[in-house]
Design a protein that fits this description.
CATH class of the largest domain in chain A: Alpha Beta
Distance between the termini of chain A: 47 Å
CATH topology of the largest domain in chain A: TIM Barrel
Structural class of chain A: alpha/beta
Radius of gyration of chain A: 26 Å
Family (chains A, B): Belongs to the glycosyl hydrolase 67 family.
InterPro entries (chains A, B): A-glucoronidase_C_sf, GH, Glyco_hydro_67_aGlcAse, Glyco_hydro_67_aGlcAse_N, Glyco_hydro_67_C, Glyco_hydro_67_cat, Hex-like_dom2
Number of helices of chain A: 22
Keywords (chains A, B): Carbohydrate metabolism, Glycosidase, Hydrolase, Polysaccharide degradation, Signal, Xylan degradation
Helix content of chain A: 25-40%
Oligomer: homodimer
Organism (chains A, B): Paraglaciecola algarum
Subunit structure (chains A, B): Homodimer.
Largest interface: A-B, 76 and 77 residues
CATH architecture of the largest domain in chain A: Alpha-Beta Barrel
């Protein structure tokens, strides 16, 4: 039915009708399922003609499963965008040729690759040349997967209406391991998931392979994500039983063609829980033997299995510490088991223990810094961007730059655990860039986090970046179409952290929402300011961890008296009648000592601390004068809360003006999301201002509407069924 | 973009392409979302022309929200099926007129309604007549909702390619309350749900109204379902708090236009749990006052609110028994609170208590029979079809026919809790019909269950049928496209229980899968035999409740030693070296005494007990001779298990031959489902035969392949993450 050979009016009517009959409902429209691979028709006649000329005859050499994927994608994309039957031609006739280096005629290979060094199997080249007077484009690389990446790059150029004439694009990923972390439980609950349940239907695997699994892999490959950790870091040991490994294998077989490896989160005590051993002590031979046997078992079925992700001795998870061993001993045991098969260990540095009498933000550094150089070469230590836990804004983790002999993997959170869940429209590109471009000064000026993570600062052999997925079973994948941009931005930056968050936003907008220039500009502006807006109405001036307890939904600055002090809000903001903020300077817990100079001294002094981190590092009096504005701390705090909430109103207004250029169904759905966003930004503002006012005992600056309700109204709000609960 | 005014080749290409770009993936195809409202293009030229002539000009009188729904549905359906722009004409020009009785010209009203008695607001008439030499069709009824029902009937005629010439169809629902029961928790987990999570996104309500809510209502209205209980009978008391009631209201406002009322399951102890009272004793004035106030609060926001569904004093739920009161006292208190607003109480008779020294199948009757006549007029007692719990086959509950003064509402299960979950292809139409057509003999021969339920046997004022929903967030709604037929069949039978399950299967197949006659026949045959097949490989000859514990997934005839004896399997099959079966005859627990004569005597004697209920009512020796086959009981049991499993293989084979006539994506997905079904039918067979053989100690009949594994292999299989767990 989708064969496009028909002509004439009758056939036209048939197709027209089958289009309608495919509509999902009366109000048929864009439901967001297609993500940025929407491939909408190019309505501009000349543009279409120009692309058509170059792309109407193409050829994919080879017949690997990846080649088939490329062929399928080109057929689909060109048919959709260009409106004609895409032709898979003979190689000689094709104006677009996709072939790996080995498949190329020698002369073409020599010409095309002249001066380029293909360092990795993923590097790709898009090369324009002339043959017999015909302009042609070649996409090549060492492997078929590299040509798949190149293919998506070319498609992106067309989707963003860029020229494809005389291209000479050579691209090499700056980071080698680019993975999503799914915090998905085996019962399909997603911890910190706000887009429905897990897309993995474990119960029906391995037999039932949804088309969605393929579409997931397509989306990831299109942005260069080359791996996925299928299950929650709070891991169920059952994942390593044969019953589940055959399900994992089925997914791995889908993802392989798209260049994606499968990884698993494992529970450190698995030898005891499912192996029948009496210990999981990493120094015991039977424990190592168990992991070796388990690895062998896995690789026999999944030869390209990626490796393990481990959360150990953190928030109740078992680990080597249970047996008096270090994180390095634990990680190395697993690394030894995986090494013969080429697997890696991603060992999380997110550790903090109640017993330790040390401030939480300092513990990961204290624990891991002494272990520098003690890890086997196939271990990556995975570090969250900040020292606490995925707050709207955090300073960088002091571990970045602190371990010259240990490769550190970045862990970003894409899902919005502390960022309002999926109804807050926050584009995280600027946050990721802020972190990556921060200077650690580890080897003097210019020692950015990005250079630590990509391995260039300390010449590491492997490098990695993980994003905690915001993907779920919701039809639009992320619970909110705008938040697809965060999945997209994560992947693009993991491949190339030098891209600007703005250009990524622009690409994504054109590919996903609209081609109208004016509308694209509006949307990009809206996206670019959205994260700062969120910081303002949630946690301005360095405030952090003041969300409601457990689920982290909504404001909860009043939270106290939990099982651990460092799970409460009052511990972090320390508001009292004198002032507010956490003294992490030398006069306090001296967390600044964990940073390199001159960052250390700069953060030690409130007058040189960037205002956005003021209350992270200092407890300051309510009348402290804010340099940039001249306002008192109290007035500035209130100002930012009100500023943030009114910026969300402005965002919603901007969105409402986009109606002419956005698909009607998508527009209507997103408008409802903006309604929630506006309400909740005001809720955050009012709850926090009311609460902090109870300490500051100062009036609101003139002209501001006071909170709608008394403080206890906000304190009494309860959300026992908020989604994404932790275990 | 969906406006169909375009002509010419260029426009054709545009639409053709936008069709493709709407495809959900490379393998675009039917993902099952559209259910039976698929409205595929009528490819047969003459058929299309004939329908077009009659339907191309239509008019919907009035402008209520229901009228708008009708207009939208006609536009969408006719555009899709007929391939031309549907025209909403002036009344005079229209060959199809949709108008309620009050909107009709008097002469037409008189002619059309001559001899018809519109008993309910839902009765509709489809009436063919001639005017000025033009053949016309009128759809009318007392209300707009009635005309909506009539509209769906007309559309069904077109979808099933029936004549719409000279129609004179008058239809009145046989049952007044036709509702789905969603066992959906407020955290979106669906108890006994096998199609993803709840479609109600409570967290984002009331602001976010998905198009899916509308499509849900469309589907229900199209089969005559006029209400829905939104939440689990194991009810969370929070549903009655203002926070949730505003969400309920938002859904009610969507459903209202489609003729659907919203109902809620309520927890009997709500006055204590959320009302701050110290008791929920139904005889206390403050308790009644609380419920009255709560009802007032609800009706102020939802004027057409349907009422409450209550599971009380059953499986740990609170109830009037906690205060020494009867079910009637509990139900009547709620009924009194709802009565001023027109609401009803649906009070479940599914009660059994550990303390009671009475066999489980007998308890509901013992509890409720003495209460007959004690309920207020707006109470319906909701009775499961059988006396245990939604087994693949059960005899009817003896309550049907036992309460001449109390209307009994039928509770069917659509979701397949005990029927293999959503990967077993079981069409339940024949099961529903088997129950409804069973004779209770309550007032002599012909006193069928259907007549009890529709109120005609005892002249009840209200009547009801509930179906426990199989709907979830899966794209195809029911986790398996074929199982949409059960939602469909439930609705059709609730409206008219005299329809045959075969004609329902045929309608559904044509509307959902294919128009090819040969293919339709194959599918209908496959559907019609599927339930008997399932009984054979799961619970032949009256066996029951031998599923694995808790989740009820897979075989577990060996289950014993649970918290309650009547939760185990061994309690129900009582296999030993002598024989097998539960003696419910007068020599045993004498459950047969609860039925009317002559059923009672027939069931008391194995020689007159229908073979399908043999082991339900009798414990028989392994060598007992089965009348129909002459086989020994052991051989017959084994024969049926093998028969069932081989029938599933045959079903899968039949399905595989349908490829030419089924959408490719849908075909591929369903083929995978059949693979699971085949495997699991063999698993059931092998596990049960192995287990029962350990008692019977007899060989398999000649020629049968022995089970693939020893018994302990099956006994050791564990499924802690099986979906749909109970609370």
């Amino acid at each position: 039915m989708n064969k496009l050979k028909v002509t004439g009016v009758l056939a036209c009517i048939v197709l027209l009708v089958s289009h309608l009959s495919h509509a999902s409902s009366i109000l048929s429209g864009d439901d967001g399922y297609r993500l940025w691979l929407k491939y909408d028709y190019i309505s501009h006649l000349e543009q279409r003609a120009s692309y058509s000329q170059q792309l109407s005859h193409w050829h994919v050499a080879g017949n690997s499963s990846t080649d088939k994927v490329i062929r399928q994608e080109l057929t689909y994309a060109f048919s959709s965008m260009l409106g004609n039957q895409a032709v898979d031609s003979q190689q000689g006739d094709a104006s677009l040729l996709v072939a790996n280096l080995a498949e190329l005629p020698e002369a073409l290979r020599n010409n095309a690759t002249d001066g380029k060094e293909f360092k990795t199997d993923e590097d790709y080249l898009i090369y324009g040349f002339s043959e017999n007077g015909q302009k042609k484009v070649l996409i090549t690389g060492k492997t078929d997967v590299a040509t798949l990446y190149g293919t998506y790059h070319l498609l992106r150029l067309v989707q963003t209406r860029q020229s494809i004439v005389s291209l000479n694009i050579f691209s090499s990923p700056k980071i080698s391991v680019r993975v999503l972390n799914h915090w998905d439980n085996l019962d399909r609950h997603v911890e910190r998931g706000y887009a429905g349940q897990s897309i993995w239907d474990w119960h029906k695997l391995p037999e039932l392979i949804y088309q969605r699994y393929h579409d997931y892999a397509r989306a990831n490959a299109s942005v260069g994500i080359n791996g996925t950790v299928l299950n929650n870091v709070n891991a169920d040991p059952l994942i390593l039983t044969p019953q589940y490994l055959e399900k994992v294998k089925a997914l791995a077989e889908v993802f392989r063609s798209y260049g994606m490896k499968v990884y698993l989160s494992v529970k450190f005590s698995s030898p005891q829980l499912i192996g029948g051993l009496e210990t999981s002590d990493p120094t015991k031979p039977e424990v190592l033997a168990w992991w070796k046997q388990k690895s062998k078992e896995i690789y026999a079925e999944i030869p390209d299995f990626g490796g393990f992700l481990v959360k150990a001795n953190s928030e109740g998870q078992p680990g080597p510490g249970d047996f008096g061993r270090t994180h390095a001993q634990g990680a190395n045991m697993l690394a030894e088991a995986l090494a013969p098969h080429g697997g890696i260990v991603m060992w999380r540095a997110f550790v903090y223990a109640n017993e330790k009498n040390e401030e939480r933000s300092k513990q990961a550094y204290s624990e891991f810094k002494p272990l520098d150089g003690k890890f086997l070469p196939n271990v990556l230590v995975q570090v969250k961007n900040g020292p606490i836990d995925f707050q709207p804004r955090e300073p960088i983790s002091p571990l970045f730059g602190a371990t010259p002999n240990t490769p550190l993997m970045m862990e970003f959170q894409i899902t919005q655990e502390y960022l309002g869940f999926s109804t807050h429209n926050v584009y995280l590109g600027p946050m990721y860039k802020e972190v990556l471009s921060t200077d650690t000064y580890a080897k003097g000026k210019g020692s950015t986090v990005a250079k630590v993570v990509d391995g260039s600062l300390f010449q590491n052999n492997i490098s990695g970046m993980a994003g905690v997925s915001n993907i779920g079973s919701d039809r639009n994948w992320t619970g909110n179409v705008l938040l697809q941009s965060n999945w997209y931005a994560f992947g693009r930056l993991a491949w190339d952290h030098e891209l600007s968050s703005e250009e990524i936003a622009q690409e994504w907008t054109q590919m996903t929402l609209t081609q109208n220039t004016q509308a694209v500009d509006k949307i990009v502006n809206l996206l670019m300011s959205s994260r700062e807006t969120t910081v303002n109405y949630m946690t301005p001036l360095g405030l952090h961890h003041i969300m409601d307890e457990g689920h982290h939904y909504g404001p909860g600055p009043w939270i106290k008296d939990l099982g651990r002090e460092d799970w409460t809000s009052v511990y972090y903001h320390k508001a009292d009648e004198q002032g507010i903020g956490f003294d992490r300077s030398p006069s306090g817990v001296n967390a600044v000592a964990q940073y390199h100079e001159p960052l250390r001294s700069r953060l030690a002094d409130p007058s040189t601390t960037p205002e956005e981190f003021l209350l992270w590092f200092h407890h300051l009096p309510w009348d402290y004068s804010i340099k940039s504005s001249g306002r008192s701390l109290w007035n500035e705090l209130v100002h930012r809360y009100y500023q943030g909430a009114s910026e969300v109103e402005e965002m919603a207004k901007q969105w409402s003006e986009l109606q002419p250029w956005i698909d009607p169904l998508l527009f209507a759905q997103q408008t409802m999301v903006f309604n929630i966003h506006q309400q909740e930004a005001k809720w955050w503002r009012d709850a926090c201002v009311s609460y902090f006012q109870s300490f500051a005992k100062r009036p609101l600056p003139d002209g501001l509407t006071p909170p709608a309700h008394p403080l206890d109204y906000y304190q009494n709000m309860k959300f026992p069924n908020a989604p994404g609960r932790g275990d």
